[in-house]
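Try it yourself: sequence plus uridine-diphosphate-N-acetylglucosamine, in.
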Amino acid sequence: MNKLILVTGGTGYIGSHTVVELMNVGFDVVIIDNLSNSEKSVLDGIAEITGRRAYFEQFDLCDKEKLDNFFKVYKKLDAVIHFAAYKSVGESVEKPLKYYQNNLTSLMNLLECMVNFNIPHFVFSSSATVYGQPDQLPVTEKASFKPADSPYGNTKQIAEEIIYDTVSVNPNLQAISLRYFNPIGAHSSALIGELPTGVPDNLVPFITQTAAGVRTELKVFGDDYNTPDGSAIRDYINVVDLAKAHVVSIKRMIENKTKSNPEVFNLGTGKGTSVLEIVKAFENVTGEKLKYKIVDRREGDVESVYADTKLANEELGWKAEISSEDTLLSAWNWEKNIRDI
Ligand code: UD1
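Structure, out:
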């Protein structure tokens, strides 16, 4: 029998790409998603790519009674990958309680059920935001947390602490936290991708919407950073590469290869790229001219952050492989597909 993995937030951006990669290697998947920031039609995209349908349950993880009932039905889960969370930095500043309430209650409910129902493996969707502006670059997993810039960032820090404390007294529950740098791009089929609601906060969806004529121009937040071209530097990683790291993490736990509990890995390319470099690369690869202007820095942004990927490369045996050109092209193909361009 195939192993069965629960993916919370499985109709979301990173979740859906991970469901595809899990199913591609033969796992069965059940998704829980309340569709607060995703569409049910994503399930069709997943089915078209993989030739199989994921099981789907629509409810909110904060509803403990429903979650308990779910675990009573799906007794034979082999692992849980937990994506479901709010993720808008700006909104979290406006509505901190919404973020603490949702992101932390859902995590605690899940962990409690996993302990009660003896589900052994847990992967958590963390973020490089826990590092703030690191003292040293590239940043390793050993770097200490900096005071969070936003309630969103704080939920990721607190979540990692909750996981640490929980597995410390429940050694039968093994956890891996994956700290994502900047996931971008879409599946090469252009059947799934990122679906931002309203005005995108993130750089690449804003770029593709500008090229598609949905936004008039890109605002580049700051050209006075202490970087070669003055714009801020990030580590942009293809979402399919990122998704594959989840599959490797699940296998690692199933094969009992973990060396600590929890384990923590950076997921990035190891390469820093500036905002202006992304703009130029997008123009080159798509042939589209992008209208942009330089504006003030965005509050809460750090100057430069990119991953030391040695631990993930050596321990997980995983490495980002897809080129930045193919990645930007995949983001553009996805945008064109959903806009019928
Ligand atoms: C943010 C979050 C991060 C989260 C990630 C993905 C923080 C500080 N950052 O990362 O935790 O995991 O989103 O959701 O919590 N930019 C522009 N113009 C735009 C948009 C962005 O110039 O219209 C610039 C930004 O200033 C930044 C870079 O592009 O330098 C990347 O921004 P963005 O895509 O929003 O990601 P982060 O802020 O790095």
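One thing you can check immediately is this: The first strand starts at residue 4 and ends at 8.
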